[in-house]
Amino acid sequence: MKKNVIYLNDWLAIHPYTTVCSSDTFFVELANKLYAACHLEELPETFRKNLSLYVAAYLEDIISGLGLWQGFATAHARLYGRCLPFYPTGTDYIKGEVNLEDVRFIIWNTWQKAPYSHGYVNPLDTSILKLAQAFLPLLEEAYEVAPENELLKDYFAGYADEKEADRNLSWLFGHTYLTEPSMLPYIERVAPDDRFIIPTGPLALFLHEWIELLAGKQAACWKSFPRLYQEEKEMPESILQKNAEIYRLFTLWTGGRKIIYLNGYASLKRFLVEILQWPDDENHTLPQMKNCRNFVLMVDEQKGLLLAKDVCEYIADTENPYYDQEEASQNAFRMLTEEMLCPPDLLHYCIEKNLLPDAELPEVGEKMLVKLNADFIARHSLLYYYRGD
C-alpha cells in the first residue's frame, strides 16, 4: 500500500473552514489516489500534489453544489458561446457530472499557472489527455459514492456578518481549486482591498462577477458588502478636456482613424510635437523610448493617448506598413501573454478585429487553436493587464 502524501491540512488549505467535516476524509483519500496516478513528471512534486487536490475538489464541487465549476462554464459560454476553452464538448458531455474535458482543463490550468520556469503549455499536449484518462475512472468511481460536503452547498447564498463574508471572499479570491492557480505568484503581496480590483481565476473575473455567478438570485445580499462593488472613479474634468483635445487632433490628422503606426523615435517625437502640439521638451516627448524600433498609437476620447512599443511587426492591419508575417509567427503570441507589452484597449481591438492571425503556440506552431481562443488566452495569462485600464 502506497504511503499517503496528501493530508487533511493540505485539503483544508483550499477550503473556507478549519474544522474537519465528515466528508473531508473521503476526498483526502481520493486526492491520494489521484496523486498515485499522476505521472506528469514535467510538473514538480508540489504542483502534482496541488493538482491532485484540485481535481478532488472539482468532484466535491459537483457533488456538493458549490457551483464553482458551473459558474466558470456559464461565464465562458456567455463570453464565447461554448462551455470550455480548447476542448470541444460532444453529446457525451453531461453538465453536473464528471467529464474528461473538465479534467483536461484543470490539468492544463494548474500546469500552465504553476509558478516555476516553463514555457507556455500546449493544451493539446498528449500527456494532459493521458493523465485525464488516468484520472477519469477514479473520479467516476468516486462520483457514485462520494458524500456531499453540506457546508459548501449554496455557500455564497448569504453570510452571517461582514467578518464571515470577508473570509469567504478571501477564499474565493485565491484559495479555491479554480482561483488559486492564478493567484499563487501574487497572493502574499495582495492587500485586503486589492482583492476587489484584481481579477482572478481562469477568466480573470472580479469578485463581484464571481459572486453573481455563484449566488444567483441571492447575489443582492452582497450589494451592501463594502468595496465588493467598486464605483467607477470619475476623471477630473480638466483631464477629460485634455484627452478630448488629443482625440480631436489625432483623428483630424488621421482622417478619423484611431490607430497609427510609426517607425522610429523621430517619427514619434514629430507626431507628439507637430500633430498633438505637445511641448518640445523631455517631459513630453518620451525620450526614454529613443531606442525603440516602432510604435503603435491608439486614441480614446476619454482616456487620451495609448502607446505600445516594438509590436508593429505583429499586427496584420492593412494600415500598418511595418507588419512582418515571419516576425508575427515568432512573436505575436507574446501580445496575448506578456504583461505590459500592449495596453488592454489595443489588445482587445487586435483580438476583436483578428489582427493577430499569425499568433501561434510557441514550439508547436499551432495557429487555429490560438485564433479560436485568443481572447481567453489573454484573459487567462494577463488577468489585471487584460481587465485594467
H/E series: HHHHHHHHHHEHEEHHHHH
Count of DSSP helices?
Answer: 16
Strand order of the largest sheet: 1-2-3
- Residue share in helix: 40-55%
Rg result = 24 Å
Task: Compute the separation of the termini in Å.
Answer: 54 Å
Which residue ranges are poorly predicted, with pLDDT under 50 across at least 5 consecutive positions? none
How confident is the prediction overall: mean pLDDT? 96
- What proportion strand? under 5%
Count of strand segments: 3
Shape: globular
Characterize the largest beta sheet: strand count, sense, and whether it forms a barrel: 3 strands, antiparallel
Helix/strand/pairing class, anyone?
Answer: mainly alpha
Supply the number of structural domains. Answer: 2
Protein name: DUF3843 family protein
Quickly describe the structure.
With 389 residues, the protein is mostly helical.
Care to describe what's here?
The chain is mostly helical. The chain folds into 2 domains: 1-231, no CATH class; 237-387, no CATH class. Helix content is 46%, strand content 5%. The chain contains 16 helices and 3 strands. It has helices spanning 8-12, 24-37, 45-64, 68-80, 100-113, 126-145, 162-174, 180-183, 207-215, 237-254, 265-275, 325-331, 334-337, 344-352, 368-382, 384-387, and strands spanning 259-263, 294-300, 304-309. It has a 3-stranded antiparallel β-sheet. Helix 2 (24-37) crosses helix 3, helix 2 packs antiparallel against helix 6 and helix 5 (100-113) packs across helix 6. The model has no long low-confidence stretch (mean pLDDT 96).
